[in-house]
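Predict the structure of Actin-related protein 6.
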Amino acid sequence: MSELSNAEPRSYSRTFDKSRMRRRRSSVLSAGAKSPKREGLSALVVDNGAYSVKVGLSTAQSPTLVPNCIMKAKSERKRLFIGAQINECRDCSGLYFLLPCERGYITKWDVQKPVWDYVFSRNVHPVEDKPVVMTQPLFNFKSIQDCIDEIFFEEYEVPSMFRPNPTDLSKLKYQQDNKLSNNLPCIIVDSGFSFTHVIPYINGNKYLRAIRRLNVGGKLLTNHLKDLISYRQYNVMEETYVINQVKEDTCYISNNVLDELKLASTKNNPIVRNYVLPDFNNIRRGYIQDPNDVNQKEIEENCQILKLNNERFVVPEILFHPSDIGMKSAGLAEAVVDSIFRCPEHARRDLAKHVVLSGGNCKFPGFRDRMYAELRSYLPHDWEVGVYMPDDPVGYSWKGGSALLKVPNFKNLLVTKSEYEEFGSTITQQRFNSWMTDNSEPDSESSEPEISFSYLDNIKGRSIFGKNELGNNDSKFESNTNESDSLGSDSKTDSNDGTNQIPETTENDINTEHSTEQSSNGFNELMNSVDLFPFGTNTYL
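Done. Here is the predicted structure for Actin-related protein 6.
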């Protein structure tokens, strides 16, 4: 893998390489014939996140974390680093990252494929003959899924595969640990590197109409911290690797931001921390300075010290108030509340009691307490609020892979190599994307009330281009004409004499005319309203 710079990037299309498939058909069929006996025992679980790949056997206690990126250093420009190879780099300052994902979805296959080659190598976790359970982001694109199918079934020759969403595994793990029913409603908050998802589960399935996504993740927080430090102290715009470590080591979630800001403005406040930046000779990773440690003072004399004050809690505050940096988006707690109230009424109380946190951003100290306080203030006082955060929120989805193996129909969820060769990506789309998904119609109790007023009813009978438009008098004339057709022969002879008979105006006609004028005036006011039609009615009609 150290010679990646000399290799040309490969492109992966969705077409079948039929010659390669014929060469491997016999070996794959033999492997597929032996796999059903072992599928129920263990599987290779891969949580392919935008920041890191969590991989390991389902029987292991914890996964192996591999950064999902290719790193380039200024000191060694001819070499690329993947995973643990970064420890061989002599100078990690100014690291340049090649990321395969954009907004959480794979877009650069020439970066993602070498990372997978490293992950599934003999030194990390070879695929062998075990089924693969690999996560994919919510609402993943079909073209991305087709490429994943081709790479895993044809390149890596996996005997069978299943692709759930990471929140599906988190939900299974939560219910297994707490011995809850599979149909009990719960809501999963997955806050990762690229985005944050709020996903409610009702009767064991995702309730699609209440899913919420925030484009706020760890990448945004790191970039904002780089901006603050570069403006106030050192220029660290190219030190993404170091500043990301600073964020993980020093930042926390505040319960009361206004009080913390007042405290941070005082001199010698307890919030200030001095962070020793690494020089990559004596110090490989930065750390918070301890003023009582005498042994480190001699080493720190030649190092740069980064002073952090209100940056420690202002940066993570973006998760709960994205408007602080100008984003027109709701906060995390508001998104959870909005998701709860868009679900059926009978499930809302249970959703509020079972809020599960997962993802790397949940590791900020004080995250769970702040989430509980926010939800408690938004939800009704007689509702019970429960927020659960596991000990390892980063690997929580991966640990749900072991819970997936205990599902009774797990073998039926897998797509084998032979099935893929016969049906292609069609069978993977049907089997993977429909699992734990609720496609039913919305309940009547949660549906919106009917609107009694309709613009179409008022426009009906009118000419769009202004031609042959009937006025009030014309409509009355038509009604009178219809009545005259039903009269006897005496009225016809009177009309033929040339005498114009004026119909008597009754009280009902006056009321009808008055109401017609009011409705027409109200309709004209609506049609000329700037709020409803800011660009004029012509653009809508």
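The chain has four domains: 4-163+414-438, 169-215+329-388, 218-318, 449-516.
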